[in-house]
Design a protein that fits this description.
GO molecular function: DNA-binding transcription factor activity; transcription cis-regulatory region binding
CATH class of the largest domain: Alpha Beta
Strand content: 15-25%
Strand order of the largest sheet: 2-1-3-4-5-11
CATH topology of the largest domain: Rossmann fold
Keywords: DNA-binding, Transcription, Transcription regulation
InterPro entries: HTH_LacI (IPR000843), LacI/GalR-like_sensor (IPR046335), Lambda_DNA-bd_dom_sf (IPR010982), Peripla_BP_I (IPR028082)
Structural class: alpha/beta
Number of strands: 12
Number of domains: 3
Pfam family, one: LacI
CATH superfamily of the largest domain: Response regulator
Largest sheet: 6 strands, parallel
CATH architecture of the largest domain: 3-Layer(aba) Sandwich
Protein name: LacI family transcriptional regulator
Length: about 350
Amino acid sequence: MTVTLADVAARARVSPATVSRVLNGNYPVAESTRERVLRAVADLDYVLNGPASSLAAATSDLVGVLVNDIADPFFGIMASAAQTAIGAGASGRGGGEKLAVVCNTGGSPERELTYLTLLQRQRAAAVILMGGSLEAPERLAATAAKLSRLADAGTRVVLCGRPPVEGDAHAAALVFDHRTGARRLTEHLLGLGHRRIGYVAGPADRTTTRHRLEGHREALAAAGVPEGPTVHGPYERASGHAATAELLARDPDLTAIVASNDTVALGVCAALRERGLDVPGDVSVAGFDDLPCALDAVPPLTTVHLPLHEAGTRAGHLAADAAEPAPDGHETIPAELVVRGSTGAVRG
């Protein structure tokens, strides 16, 4: 059955005129009312200008790039590269210049679905979802259903750094090999003689966190080394700073700390220095991602390099229809160990 504007109004407990004002953006509406209307639109999968069947193909030159946090260099580097590639896509086989719009979700799955619904209404030519996703099955199912409807309407769907849902055939997926990178990083520390290794993990409900932690644990298990203390937190410097105190309280004899990303690793290094501990003389520290700050840290960070700029460029070309996807739609992007001065051999 076709969802009507009246259905949305009833769901949001407002008048049809109010729904029209929110969707058209031509009249001031209270923010709480606007959010209620947009939630109803998402819940009912309402598409402006008639039933979804009328949108046999996307006709807009709009490309939506969804990121968790544009201020995070991990997302900023990829989004910038994608936007540049999309803007240059006029010379590609798809033809016609595209407008890339970056949508900052703040890590909220509700906001992500809202943006996807807005892009659906605008008949977006493509959407790119960057970074890991929440592990909750209901969230994964809701996002997969929305992406399927977008693809059915002719919108190209590109996942950049996000693993596809099992059985998901409608998206081109660029998947970072987090597990291999994390395993090689821990193997590097084990090779230096470290046996008491703490770990500052990202949020427990994120795919990126799980995959990196799995690689770390695989290396420990293969070497027969017990897992050290692990603390979860946001991918932020403050998280690394706070987690260091907890890790050392749980095991004062730690000789190495692995951080979930380079920004977190900087917080770890600062906390160790405040306690009079030398990096890497007393405690080795390693990060992940190889952000620009990793090279400029003192000492420079040992980390795992992800080709963020290249991945963003590839995602942009796929979104602009200026490149062919892999035969099965899925591409694995390698992660490479980069050894610098923040890791060293255990002191005898």
